[in-house]
Amino acid sequence: MTRIAALALAAATALTSPAVAQSLAGGRELSVDAGLGVKYSPEFMGSDNLNSSPWIILRNGDSDAGKAQGISILPSLNYLGKRDASDHPDLYGMDDIGYAGEFGVKLSWRMGDMTSYGAIRKGFGGHHGVAGELGAKYRYQVDDRLTLWTGAELGMGDQDFTGTYFGVGAGEERPGRAIHSPDGGAYIARLSVEARYEFMPDTAVMGRLTYGRLLGDAGDSPLVQTRSQPSISIGLARRLNFRF
């Protein structure tokens, strides 16, 4: 919970950063869905087994929602669970990876119901690399309460990031597990469908279904049991609105 609190504090700090404040200048409004839920996803990147983990919801941020098009500059946060080799027989002999937080910035460009975005974050804790995404999503307003999104994105990581989660170093090799030093770049492609149902004013149930496919050196890692990486998430979120 202390790590979650640290991420929340980082988000609060980012919302008052000069870059964000500048993007909100002129009486703009910042709104974002924030909450918690549960996510069922691979036990580790490349695993063919799913388990549950916290889903920290910080989504649908917009600093100019009243316009048909606009640019938003918002904080970007991510949280990665730990990987203990002792919990996975196939990882015997690998170094453990601790919990990791990622903190950075996200730039979104909205054109009507289509939004393109790019995010970049620096890791701390379990990894110290740089990661992010490039993607686009389409918004469909079913009615006053239900909103749907479809999206596609590429997950990116530098060599430090991919080496942490997909690399095999000296002393970690075993029969069938050779030394592997993956390059940085696009390591996963994802397609997603997301839903938001507002059952009370500014309070919503949110769900997300994602299919990911590991790419390149990451997918070729001897640690990868399957390139297919599905996940499903559900949680409760509160719509937060800030005026500047």
From TrEMBL:
Residues 1-21 form the signal peptide. Keywords: Cell outer membrane, Membrane, Signal. Its main location: membrane. GO terms for cellular component: cell outer membrane. InterPro entries: MipA. It is found in: Cell outer membrane. The keyword Iron does not apply. Belongs to the MipA/OmpV family. This is MipA/OmpV family protein. It comes from Paracoccus thiocyanatus.
